[in-house]
Amino acid sequence: MAFRTLRSLSRHSSTFASLNGVPTPAASLKCSIWDVTFQRGDGVFEAVRVVQDRDGVPAPRAVSLHLDRLERSAAALELKLPPRAHLESWLRDAARNGGQGGYVRLMVTRGGGSQGYGDHLADLDAPANAFCVWQPITADDAKTFALEPICAPWHPAGFSKDWATIKWLAYGANMHSARLARRTGADDALLLARGWGVADDGPLGDRAVLDGPNFAVAWLEDKVLKVPCWRRLGMLESITARLLLDAAAAENFRVDEGVHRLSDLERADEVWVLSTTNDLTPVRSVGYASFKADPSSPARQKLVRAMADCAAALG
């Protein structure tokens, strides 16, 4: 069988990895070149932050929400998953063995022989696999983001439910958007929708705000928390944004979850990037608009504490 070693994992100093639940050195993990997920990106994944549970044991944060999303993604792609109990056990093993200060990435492949891609080859030996690997998160309390707004014509943006809310492994367009943004001197991209009442040559400021290549965004304007609505805009639901919304409700923040234009965001008092690895990280600029990027701001501190409480309540 022909394999490609997942060398990128070994560069991340992983202290724990497993293949279908069997502990395996990260540098030794292999994926068959005949696996359609390797060839086409046709698979699903989750990235789950590791936190201490109520007993002080490193555990995957909000694991039930992540598994719910994984099951939705797999169902949309008609991809068979291992039993949910097995997946949760593998995530917990990786979190416990890897420790706090990192996150666990779970990747499920389709294997070889899928319809139209090798199903005519009876001897094709490329089983579906579930890779689980702990990776470190670099702690940087002073970190901020500069985002470059970019129209994302490849994004479903609410066009069809058949193309939305799937966390699949094909992130090539996302990564290219980030590259284009970095060419301008920004740290990453802020994706804007095509359409939504705006002509292709229309003003950028009129476009609907989506998310980032691998993060969600939210902002505070006149004490109102504003979040792009993943349901209406056909985006992947962000688990971190879900925790933020729960935290905002617990702290009695007014919330406006809807379709917001770039020109709306430019009026914000504070803007944040949200993800498994970034949690609630301040944004210092979006294009030419600058913002207060203060990690110690009272609103951010209150929301971060409430997010931790909400996550802990999920178990």
Automatic annotation (TrEMBL):
Domain of life where this protein originates: Eukaryota
InterPro entries: Aminotrans_IV, Aminotransferase-like, BCAT-like_C, BCAT-like_N, Class-IV_PLP-Dep_Aminotrnsfr
GO biological process: carboxylic acid biosynthetic process
Ranges in a coiled coil: none
GO MF annotations in UniProt: catalytic activity
Family note: Belongs to the class-IV pyridoxal-phosphate-dependent aminotransferase family.
PANTHER family: AMINO-ACID AMINOTRANSFERASE (PTHR42743), P-LOOP CONTAINING NUCLEOSIDE TRIPHOSPHATE HYDROLASE PROTEIN (PTHR42743:SF13)
Name of the protein in question: Aminodeoxychorismate lyase
Lineage: Eukaryota, Sar, Stramenopiles, Ochrophyta, Pelagophyceae
